[in-house]
Amino acid sequence: MTQTPSLNRRRVLQAGAAGLAGMSLGACGQAGSRPLLSSDTHPSDYPTVQAVRHMGEFLREQTDGRLDIRIYAGGQLGSERDTLEITSFGGLDMNRVNLAPLNSIEPMTVIPSLPFLFSSTEHMRQSLDGAPGDVILNSLVPHNLVGLCFYDSGERSFYNTRQAIRTPDDMRGMKIRVQNSDLYVAMIRALGADATPMPLGEVYQSLVQGVIDGAENNWPSYESGRHFEAAPYYSLTRHVMAPEILVMSLSRWRKLSEADQELVVNAAKSSVPFMRELWDARVAGARERLMDAGIQANEVDNLSDFQGLMEPVWENFIVTPEQEELVNQIQSIGSELGGA
Ligand code: GTR
Question: 181 in ligand 1 pocket by Cβ < 6 Å?
Fold first, then answer.
């Protein structure tokens, strides 16, 4: 990490901790004027960042500026795993992350990350807007986090520096970067490749230097991280549709009055449809720009080859009756939609 971000990071985290210490002296609801500090690994124009900014505007308008959000974008405060830990300690107020780095913290978050669980965007959205989503948001409280809302993250597919992937055999022996999640490691191993967990910020350089052969992500991240420059083969396996999640530190949450807690939840909920609109446009735009840039995208005819290899992964990662119940709920939403 360069000197500037680490200095910045230290300053922000000290401000967060000092703010919290100061607030703990005050009465509930008298949180003072310090904005809520929020982290995101993506750049400032990315839909997740814009959605949290939108939420901040909502809060400012509703409270005459008493509540506000300051976003530290572009991963300047550190990786998702590190900033999540800081958030649960109360050193950061809010954090927008993917569900993957929460997989090792809370087993219920594993479920929407299961490969090939959702049969469509609608299936994913309805599940997360409904009871299954609430169960997951509420499951984070014992980990000192409050789940505020989910954002779309689209479909993740594999990309690499070498060749189009059409069958699992094509990726045998490849080194594939994954997020910090045992589920993702197991998924890659089951496909016959080698999994290398690493933070998003290190992926571009690792592709260029040949430390890894490929990775997996949605169109917008493949574009914004410029991974396509080094890994031009994008194969549409669409194996995971794990959403993004916005969390708040429980200690900060508890210092809000009930009315402010309600405002924060409403602000988060109101940012979801806003984000979805941006997201759909961003996916379409990214795809078009990448095709124009000359990447080699290919459809995968027999996705069942990939799906079949995921059966043991499901078995190993669905271990509690609560998780099983959640899978059933999500699958029945899919059946009602006529998909799953
Ligand atoms: C993106 C996601 C990020 C992060 C990233 C990654 O799609 O928005 O939160 O999880 O993938 O692969 O690290």
Answer: no
